[in-house]
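Write out this protein's structure.
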Amino acid sequence: MNKIILPSMLLLLLCSPTLLADDWPHWLGSSRDGVWHETGIVTKITAAGLPVKWRVPIAGGYSGPAVANGKVFVTDYQRLSGDATNGPSLRTKITGIERLHCLDSTTGKKLWTHKYPCSYYVSYPSGPRATPAVSDGRVYSLGTEGNLVCLDVQSGKVFWQKELKTEYDIKTPIWGFCSHPLIIGDLLYLMVGGEGTTIVAFDKSSGKQIWGALDSEEAGYSQPTLITAGGVQQLVVWTPTAIHGMHPKTGDLYWQVELQPAYGMSVVSPRHYGDFLFASGIGNVGVCLKLDRDKPAVTEVWRGTSTTGVYCSNSTPIIDNGIIYGVGCRKGELRAVELETGKRLWDSFKPTTGTRPQNHGTAFLTRQADQYLLFNESGELILADLTPTGYQEKGRVKLLEPTGEAFGRKVVWAAPAYANRCLFVRNDKEIICVDLAGK
C-alpha cells in the first residue's frame, strides 16, 4: 500500500499549483517581458470584487514593488519640507528621507528598512521611480537623485552604495533617475549619463564599473533590454537621441538608429519579438526595426506617423502574436497595432481614462495565459481579453485611491507586481496585496 501511496503523493505535489509560483524579482517580471507565468488565476472579476490580504502604510513614490523568495521590496520618500511641483520644466526643492522596505509577502510584516536623508530637486518629486531588482540574495535599489545601493535581502545590510551624481559629475534629470536596474549574470546595467558613461555596466557584487559607453548629457529614463539576434547577445540601449545595439560584455557598439522623443523622454523598454524590435515615445516618435539573422545589425521597417503606430510613455507595451498593445501618451488610449506594418487596428479609452482623452492617461499591461491584467491610473484592476479584433472586458475592481497629481487630475502611476497568485501594488499612502487565485 505504501509503495502505491508515496508515488501518488509525489505526483500530486509535483502537479500542485502551489509549486508553479512565479516571482516578480524586477521590472516587467521574471522574464522581463510583462508576462506573468503563474496558473490558477481568476478569469473574471465579479461585483464582489477581490479579497485584499493585507495593507501596509508607506509614503510617496512611483516605483513598483519587486517580489522574490517570499519578500516584497518597495521604495518610498518621506517628505520633510517643501512643496511638490509637477510640470515639464519645473523643478522643486524638497527635503526628506528615501527608504527601501522589505516586507513579508504573505503577511505584509515589515522585516527591515534601509533609509537615508535625500534632498530632491526634480519635477514630480513624489518619490523614487525605479523598481528594485533582486538577484542571488541581494537587492539593488536606485533612488530619484541617483543613490544606488546593494543590500542583503535577509538583513538589509549594505554591501555597497554609490552616489551617481558625485561619482560621475552629472546632473539629475528633470524627472529624476528612473532607469530600472538590469541584472544579467554578474553585471548590473544602468543608464547613468555623462561623457562615456551614458550606459554603465557594474560588477553586481562589488559595484565596480566594468565598462561605460555612449555620450549623453542625460541618460533618459529607459531600462536596457538584453536580446539574442544575429547569432549573438545584444544589449539594446535607448538614449534620448538613438537606439543602440551593443556588446553586453564590453559596451562596443554594433549599430545605432536615431530616435528622439520630445523632452528627452526615452522611457519605455525597447520590445523584442521574433525578428523585430520596437520602441516609441512622446511626440509621435516610434520605430520598428528588423534584426539581421546573420549578424548584429538592423534595418528600419517603419516609422510612426500621426495615423500609424502607438506612442507609449508611462508604460511599456506588450507584443503578442505580432500585435503591439500599448497606451498612447498624448490621449491615453489603449491601442492595438500590427507590428510589421504599424497599422492601427483599434483603440479604446475604456481601460485607461474612461470615455475621453487625458494627457498621459496610463494603464500598466500584464499578460497571463490568454488574458490581460491592466492596472490603470484610477487605481482599478481590470481583467480583459486583447485580440486583433478588439478589447473585451471581463470585470474590474477599484483597489487604491489615486493620490498623485498629473495635469490637474489624481492618478496612480506605479506599476504593479504579480507573484504567488497575488497582485502587489502601491500608491503614495499604502502598498496592498490582493488575492488573485482562481476558486
